[in-house]
Amino acid sequence: MSQEFATLSIGDKSYKLPIIEGTRGDKAIDIRRLLKETGYITLDSGYMNTGACTSAITYLDGTRGILDYRGYAIEDLAKNCSFTEVAYLILHGELPTFDALEVFKHEMRRFALLHEDMIHFFDHFPPNASPMSILSTTVNSLHNYYPEMDNDDDPYGGYSVTTARLLAKTRTIAAFSYKKSIGHPLVYPSPRLNYCENFLNMMFDRPNLPYKIKPEFVSALNKLLILHADHEQNCSTSTVRLVGSAGANLYASISAGISALWGPLHGGANQAVIEMLLAIHKDGNNYKKYIAKAKDKNDPFRLTGFGHRVYKTFDPRAKIIKEACAEIMDELEINDPLLDIALQMEEHAATDEYFIQRNLYPNVDFYSGIIYRAMGIPTNMFTVMFALGRLPGWIAQWTEMKEDRENARIGRPRQIYSGQTRRPFVPMRDRL
Ligand code: CMC
């Protein structure tokens, strides 16, 4: 903690509030004793200015477009690592040695299968069930099959097993939910395939039509998952921490995070972007009409895939995804008209005063769906892909919260009451 203080004056009294400084220069006014000392709370809807924790996992500078995991630039990680390597980094704080990575991969292979009883779950969802609802429900129920984490005398003894289990099984659940939705037989995980290959194989292999895994898809999927692996205190991660702060188990906390991610303002945006681009395509590629709608204050329509709470410049993840998208389309000679529309919209927005004034740039979700489409992943699975990527971040954030003994307390915001003042009770016979 620095020796600096902020001074708050209320009436004729003044209070000294300590300044906290992070390792990268970010600053906060520590108001933890504010209520006790002054009787006031702070009001901050949408938590625009509220830091809920200190965290050593992800650093984000939204003004300069910087995103680092555990001190490593996202650009370096996306270029040089596999998703499994980055998951290890996020979870353990250091890049793995060769041996450590082998152990981690072995654990994931060991736990990739689902308990056979869980497979019956998939039979009882309606055929058009949303894969996000299936994912959240099934992840929650993992606790019934693997409750060891709660029973362990050492609260963190079961951590690495539970982590490997959750990472490996969530991937299996995601692929199974797709197979069930199209009425195809399940494809089980293979110990011979790596994380991304395994996922693609479980999604697309068929008994009479073996799936040929394209290295271009594996590489693109690795990149996409890495870019989604953590993003500090976003809506779903804050949900995971909040639910976990009440003492709920890891599976329940992650399941709640999946539900939060589902929303179209958050992870659901990748699906909504493709739906928007398809609608524009159907409408004769008239993207200008949709840009005009997004700017019209009387129209609730927004340009999905644009804008971000924290980034006030280009989202560094979007930059990498845009390049990866162009690369894969080129290499595999895929021509997707939606990419042309997206590029035109970005170009238009870059010179439009509305977008310039509000710092609205493409975010992580703007181009990711175009790559998923090229891979053959259906639109309603896009947010599931986001969830697979975000898992290491959620687990690391949940664990960091549990291990922060000094600040261990249930998450519980306050409010300013705006309802009726106390009034006399009215018996039923007198109510009009
Ligand atoms: N299209 C048109 N106008 C927009 C957009 C947009 N996509 N985003 C923000 N604005 C306008 C908004 O109307 C407001 O204008 P004004 O100042 O005139 O009232 C101004 O920009 C500030 O917007 P805000 O709603 O106060 O910003 P926020 O920080 O509360 O919301 C956001 C951030 C991401 C929810 C919002 O930009 C949005 O709805 N974007 C579209 C949905 C989307 O792409 N979400 C994915 C985010 S990235 C994945 C993730 O990490 O979750």
Write up this protein.
By secondary structure, the protein is mainly alpha-helical. The chain has 2 domains: about 5-50, Single Sheet (Rubrerythrin, domain 2), CATH 2.20.28; about 75-400, Citrate Synthase, domain 1 (Orthogonal Bundle). Helices cover about 50% and strands about 5% of the residues. It is built from 19 helices and 6 strands. A 3-stranded antiparallel beta sheet has the order 1-2-3. It has a 3-stranded antiparallel beta sheet with strand order 4-5-6. Strand 5 (about 65-70) and strand 6 (about 70-75) form a beta hairpin. The radius of gyration is 24 Å and the shape is globular. The protein binds carboxymethyl coenzyme *A (CMC).
Low-confidence stretches: 153-158
Number of helices: 19
CATH class placement of the largest domain = Mainly Alpha
For the report, how would you describe the main beta sheet?
A: 3 strands, antiparallel
Task: Compile the SSE list and pairings.
Blueprint: E1 5-10, E2 13-21, E3 27-29, H1 34-38, E4 58-61, E5 66-69, E6 72-73, H2 74-80, H3 83-92, H4 98-110, H5 116-123, H6 131-145, H7 148-151, H8 159-181, H9 195-204, H10 215-228, H11 235-245, H12 250-261, H13 269-282, H14 287-295, H15 316-331, H16 337-350, H17 353-357, H18 365-375, H19 382-403
Antiparallel strand pairs: 1-2, 2-3, 4-5, 5-6
Helix pairs in contact: 2-10, 3-19, 4-8, 6-8, 6-12, 8-9, 8-19, 10-15, 10-18, 10-19, 11-12, 11-19, 12-19, 13-16, 13-18, 15-18
The structure holds carboxymethyl coenzyme *A.
